[in-house]
Automatic annotation (TrEMBL):
<dbReference type="GO" id="GO:0003684">
    <property type="term" value="F:damaged DNA binding"/>
</dbReference>
<protein>
    <submittedName>
        <fullName>DNA polymerase V subunit UmuC</fullName>
    </submittedName>
</protein>
<dbReference type="Pfam" id="PF11799">
    <property type="entry name" value="IMS_C"/>
</dbReference>
<dbReference type="Pfam" id="PF13438">
    <property type="entry name" value="DUF4113"/>
</dbReference>
<feature type="domain" description="DUF4113">
    <location>
        <begin position="66"/>
        <end position="116"/>
    </location>
</feature>
<feature type="domain" description="DNA polymerase Y-family little finger">
    <location>
        <begin position="3"/>
        <end position="52"/>
    </location>
</feature>
<dbReference type="InterPro" id="IPR017961">
    <property type="entry name" value="DNA_pol_Y-fam_little_finger"/>
</dbReference>
<dbReference type="InterPro" id="IPR025188">
    <property type="entry name" value="DUF4113"/>
</dbReference>
<dbReference type="GO" id="GO:0006281">
    <property type="term" value="P:DNA repair"/>
</dbReference>
Length: 119
């Protein structure tokens, strides 16, 4: 378990914590196929407890990070989900999700709805 030093919604900080966790559990003779991330102790951004140790520099960094994440979210909203990503996965990596036996997602994806044609 990796605990963040302060509450954040910055993807870069979360990915940094994920990398720390992986380094902690990595074993040279083990093959990893898939991993998950659990987010616990979530709080509303407007109700977070600020630190007395924050400086003008950390406030400026936080504001810059918020603008960056807002821009990334806006680009993905306008141009389609996954248009802008942090890092690029290998296209044919062995660890990609295997969806061959997945059931249809009728309740969450329009393209998975059954189509009926009338003749």
């Amino acid at each position: 378990m990796v605990e963040l030093t302060k509450p954040t919604d910055d993807s870069r900080e979360i990915l940094h914590a994920v990398a720390q966790a992986f380094v902690a559990i990595y074993g040279p003779h083990y093959r990893f196929m898939k991993a998950g991330v659990m987010l616990i102790d979530l709080i509303d951004a407007n109700r977070q407890q600020l630190s007395l140790l924050d400086t003008a520099q950390t406030a400026a960094d936080r504001e810059r990070g918020e603008r960056l994440m807002a821009t990334l979210d806006e680009l993905n909203r306008q141009m389609g989900r996954g248009t802008v990503k942090l890092g690029m996965p290998t296209p044919n990596a062995a660890w990609h999700l295997r969806c061959a036996n997945r059931s249809p997602r009728w309740t969450t994806r329009w393209e998975d709805l059954p189509r009926i044609t009338v003749r």
